[in-house]
Design brief:
Oligomer: single chain
CATH topology of the largest domain: Arc Repressor Mutant, subunit A
CATH superfamily of the largest domain: Winged helix-like DNA-binding domain superfamily/Winged helix DNA-binding domain
Structural class: mainly alpha
Radius of gyration: 26 Å
Number of helices: 4
Length: 132
């Protein structure tokens, strides 16, 4: 290989890299635009849901967002290194957020235990999984 061949190949590769960077930049712009459109669509759908719910007499207040109960349970358990039973966690949730529906709390704790995110002792107390 001579110097001209190497230089030509490097120039060709630099051109290809520049083209890839332009294409990636263009894709990111498109993705941001699509995300903005989806966000607007979701907001519009939530407004429509609220309107229709009001019309039908359905209240969506008091419902929790995805993961909110799990996050609250983890926050509570972090403050209790001795662990808490499901009922104790439920009582603590009710103290912090009295309007929150806690019927799925035992299932949430059990699911997180099965996934390895929580530990449970023989007394049924839940603990945050400690990294070893």
């Amino acid at each position: 290989m001579d110097d001209e061949t190497i230089a030509a190949r490097m120039q060709r590769l630099a051109g290809q890299q520049a083209e890839l960077e332009r294409e990636q930049h263009s894709l990111k712009i498109e993705a941001h635009q699509e995300l903005e459109k989806i966000t607007i669509d979701v907001e519009d759908l939530l407004k429509r849901k609220s309107f229709l719910g009001s019309f039908l007499g359905i209240s969506y207040e008091g419902r929790i967002s995805h993961g909110e109960l799990k996050t609250l349970c983890f926050d509570i358990l972090l403050g209790h290194c001795e662990g808490l039973t499901s009922a104790q966690v439920r009582d603590e949730v009710r103290k912090r957020q009295p309007d929150m529906n806690v019927t799925s709390l035992p299932a949430t704790l059990s699911y997180q235990f099965k996934r390895g995110n929580l530990q449970r002792d023989k007394l049924g107390r839940y603990f945050i999984q400690k990294d070893t």
